[in-house]
Amino acid sequence: MESVSVVLFLLLAVVVSGAVSRMLPWSVPTPLVQILLGCVIGLSTSYSVSLNPELFLLLFLPPLLFLDGWRIPKDELFKDVSTVVELALGLVLTTVIGMGLFIHWMIPAMPLAVAFALAAVVSPTDPIAVSAIAARVPIPKRMMHILEGESLLNDASGLVCLRFAVAAALTGTFSAGGAALNFLWVAGAGLVIGVAVTLVVSRAKAWVTRRWGEDTGSQILVSLLIPFGSYMLAEHFHASGILAAVSAGVTMTFAEISREAMAVTRMRRNSVWDTIQFTLNGIIFVLLGEQLPAILAEAKATVAVTGHTQPGWLALYVVAIVLGLAALRFAWVWLSFKFTILRKRQAGKEDAATIRSPNWRLVAAMSFAGVRGAITLAGVLTIPLVLNDGTPFPARDLAIFLAAGVIIVSLVLASIALPVLLKDLTMPGEPSKQAEEDAARVATAEAAIRAIERHQHRLAERRGDADRYASAGGRVMDLYRERIEGLSEDERDAAREQERLFRDFRLVGLKAERVALGELIRTRSVGSETIRKLTRELDLSEARFRG
């Protein structure tokens, strides 16, 4: 019962955090509110959460990374792939090596392997925390695409580096050549297993659906099991379960193109995954807050590891690590953008009169946007409790304290700096996709008209009474023809204005329908099944016109 009570408290804190962050008169990131509520839970209850590192890793990371890989815009990712790779791989490796050496120099009592492990867990960024921070200041789309792509890849690369650092701490040995070969197996096999699991499951699911129909509940459950299956299978073969989960998510996008699920399945599945993402990210930050009182209570014992006696040294170390990460990221982002501009000039894609150097506000915004969040906390909590010989893992509590401090300080700094830097900030323009969208709408409408005409002819040949089918088909085809005409260049503006007015009037009508349905419910004039059906129809219509 104690475990159930703790879980319910954590879930309640996640729910309350969203409302509290919206109620506050100033912009406070939801993760900070969740950390604060977690502290309240830790201080006000006698229960404490004892986290098993391997179980924590299995429960939280696979679904989050899988969903990131599934939903990330692939075209936008490929467009800025050079910048994303430079940030996600080059910056992570530089951070692990540079910050690892810096941390070991600053805290000699922390073994070098543990310092590298700490540097590895603070290298991944968290775009969800960035979105929460900048909720009231819109982030330029291209910047958000780069941050999403970076976080997707640096989550995997940072956690793979963590794995090697922990292995070195456990065994006491490290071979660069052996690590390179092992990395190729860990990364390559992990990627292949994730792709294979997704393709096999998708094909099997499609085969069952073709023969016996589609069950929405089972389809959703299968999508939930894929990341865990990919992760566990990869770990069984000593490959990277993290990369397997990421590649499984990316593959889901392409696997579903040729094996479309029913509309109701997609809608319900999206709702389930939105809830899971919100819940898991929220619980991670609440858990950080719940653990903080115990971490702070042991600060005196923790600081003793560093050779000092005053806990204030821990705060100094946290600030030094955050400043080191910020300086390293600023320099890397500036150089990355500079080389990108140079490459475009050499390729003839940039005119000589364009900006000679990256905008400092853009570089600063990208640097502050590299806040640490759920992945950093999840990674540091997976550090083993003991070494192979049974002795306690060296400086584990210190690493957890410093990682938690980096998360909180980076969130606070970003919440102050990002709104200022992002105000009126413009990214390099993205080509408009309106023409592409219009062409797709015209092509699909023309295909629909042709299909309806063929269906009319088939029905008329089989059953006669062609006028009836011509009338019904004509009504539907008129809708498609109106769409095609509305997308012509001359009538586009007028059509959009008509569409806006139509949407506004439709929403007014839907609101009136809800009021009338509410009155029928209060007077008990309709049954529960009718209420459920009509409410769902109104929800779908409102979602369509508000979207």
Describe the 3D structure:
There is one protein chain. With 547 residues, the chain is mainly alpha-helical. 79% of the residues lie in helices and 0% in strands. The chain is elongated. It starts with a helix and ends with a helix. About 1% of the residues have low confidence.
Structural class: mainly alpha
Strand content: under 5%
* Average pLDDT figure: 80
- Put simply, the count of helices is 21
* Backbone CA Rg: 27 Å
Main β-sheet description: none
Topology pattern, helix = H, strand = E: HHHHHHHHHHHHHHHHHHHHH
Helix share bin? over 70%
Outline:
elongated
Task: Write a concise synopsis of the structure shown.
By secondary structure, this protein is mainly α.
Q: Layout of helices and strands, plus pairs?
A:
Layout: H1 2-23, H2 30-44, H3 53-71, H4 74-79, H5 81-106, H6 112-121, H7 127-133, H8 141-171, H9 176-212, H10 216-236, H11 241-255, H12 263-297, H13 299-305, H14 312-346, H15 360-368, H16 374-380, H17 396-422, H18 434-463, H19 466-486, H20 492-522, H21 528-546
Helix pairs in contact: 1-2, 1-12, 2-12, 3-10, 3-11, 3-12, 5-6, 5-8, 5-14, 6-8, 6-17, 9-10, 9-11, 10-11, 10-12, 12-17, 14-15, 14-17, 15-17, 18-19, 20-21
Search tags:
547 residues, mainly alpha, 21 helices, 79% helix, 0% strand, elongated
